[in-house]
Each structure stands twice: as structure tokens, then as C-alpha cells.
Amino acid sequence: MFDADISYFTVPIVCFAFAWILDRIFGDPISLPHLVVGYGKLISFWEKRANRTSSEAHVKRIHGALMGFVLTYGVLLVTIAIIYSAYSTIPILGVAISIILIFYCLAGTSLIREVKQVFKAVDLSVDAGRAQVARIVGRDTSQLSPQEIRIAALETLAENLNDGVIAPIFYFFGGVLLGLLLHLVYPLATEVLPLSLGVGLMTAFKMVNTLDSMVAYKNDRYIDYGRYSAIQDDIWGYIPARITAIMLLLSAKALGNWSFVKRFGRAHLSPNSGYPEAAMASLLNCRFGGPHNYFGKEVYKPYIGINERLVDTKDCNKSIHFAQRAEFLSILTFIVIAFIVWLSVMSL
């Protein structure tokens, strides 16, 4: 398809560009089978058979860790093998598979669409807003006020900008960079290596995130079984969450807000979620956090920010603008870094 040296860099970028454009046009393909839905079914199938209520706590932890480890790194290896084999046999087939998988791992358009729908719904009625926001949060929404509904949507936008957009992009380009560096150490490595590693890490992260969203709850059923998945998600999300916060601040030319982000980001119950949420709260000059109801249990999340003002559709539009700019800045930054590394590798 391309000159061998050039293709190490260009093939992954072209695949990503096509997938990103597809996401911008279509969002999540509701009428088609979805990779993450498949992940969910696989996790549910395994968990129902391994997470027995009669098992002791340490046994549940072992079984949960086994599931989390095997599914995460199994996805990584299987993805690499599929793309490597397909590309080595029919390059255009490997490219097509890669584009589809990258497309499934990006959720920027669908996230923005869902947040907009929440604000539209709550403007019609509280009940409509509660029903709509229930689609994107994992808490009880039946008693939320209009203000709480809007804040929940903005929190979700900030958190999932990391989980569903920037973190997958980070791992894709991280895999590409790893492939380029491996070529430096082992020059005979095939040109598909950066692409397969990039897509492999991206799909593995989506499995990590799906595991966290399904089994990492602190209730009787999952407190032990989901412990590994929760820790794994914290580790994989550590760097991307901070990159997301920085990119949000850059999107508004507000790097001076970093002290605010550090102060409130560290206070969050999650070691990661607080950073993009704090960045967004600083840009909107509002307050996130407070008590939330999860499965009948009230969980108090420390407040992020101090301005307890009412938010409205203008804030929704601002937050979406910041999120889209942060996504674009992240992609541009990662491409530039990959290009620099590629030039360095090729010059040696």
C-alpha cells in the first residue's frame, strides 16, 4: 500500500482518521452489533458462573482477578493477532478491520448527543430529564432535581470524555509509538506492528473500562469480585485522566486553573475521575459532587468547586465546545509526537 518505511507511520494515522470521521458522522451504530455490547455479554456470562454468593471473600477476589486479567489481555493478544494476520495476508483487510475496531472504541459523538438530550429533556419536564439522564449514569435518578440532572450530565461528559474518547486515543497512539520504537530495536519488524499494537491497546482499554462499569461496585455482590477490575481501571486511567484535564484547560486557554484541578481532583473518591471533572467545573465556574444514590445506598462524593450556581443550556453548549476542542488537541498532540518519533526512528 505504501512505501514500507512511510507506512509504519501513515497506515495507523490513516486508519485512525477514517474511524474518527465515521464516529463524527454516525456515533454509536445502534442498529449494528457493537464491540462493547459483546464485551458486556462476555463479562456477564463469566461473572454469573464465577461469582458465587457462597464463596469466601478471598475466593471471589481470585475469581474476579482471573476474569479481569484474562479478558483484558486476551482481548489485547487476540486483536493483535487478528490485525497482524489479516494485514499480512491482505493489507486492505487488515486496514478495514482496524478502522472498524477503532470506530467502535470512540464514543465522542454519542457522548455529546446523550448530554444534549438530557438538557433538552429536563427543559420539557423533570420526569423526562430523570429518564434521559438514567441512560448515562449508574445511580438512582428517580429523585433528582432539575439542577442535579444537569450537573449529573455535565459530570458524565467530563468523566467520559476521558473514558470514552481521550483515553482510548491515548492508548492507540501509545501502541503506535511502542511499535515504532520496537522497529528501532528490531528493524525487521513488520510494518503492521504499530497499527496492531495501537488497536490492541485501544480495545484492551475498552475492556478494562467495561469491566469497571459492570463489576467494580462497592456492594455485597461486587465488593470482592470486582476489586481487581476497579484497581486495574484506576491504573490504566491514571495518565489519560490527567491528560484529559490538561487538554480541557488548554481548550479554554486556562492552564492557570491547574491549581484548582489539583485541589479538587485529589478530593474525589476516584483517583482519576476527579481531574477531568475538576477541569470542567473550573471552566464553567460551577460545583459538581455531593450525595449520590447507588443501588439504594447513599454515597457522598466530595464537592468539586465552590460556586453552587444553577447551570443551564448555555453551560451545556460551553462544555461540549471545550470537550470537542480537547479531543482535537489530544489527537493533534499525539500525531505530532508519533511523527517526531517516526522521523527519529527512520533517521537511525
Mean pLDDT: 92
The count of β-strands is: 2
Order of helices and strands: HHHHHHHHHHHEEH
Tell me the fraction of residues in β-strands, as a range.
Answer: under 5%
Helix content: over 70%
Report, as a whole number of angstroms, the end-to-end distance: 23 Å
Polypeptide structure, described:
This protein has 348 residues and is mainly alpha-helical. It is built from twelve helices and two strands. It has a two-stranded antiparallel sheet with strand order 1-2. β1 and β2 form a beta hairpin. α8 packs across α9 (227-251) and α9 (227-251) runs parallel beside α11 (274-284). The protein is globular, with a radius of gyration of 21 Å. Keywords: Cell membrane, Cobalamin biosynthesis, Membrane, Transmembrane, Transmembrane helix. It is a multi-pass membrane protein. Pathway: Cofactor biosynthesis; adenosylcobalamin biosynthesis. This is Cobalamin biosynthesis protein CobD.
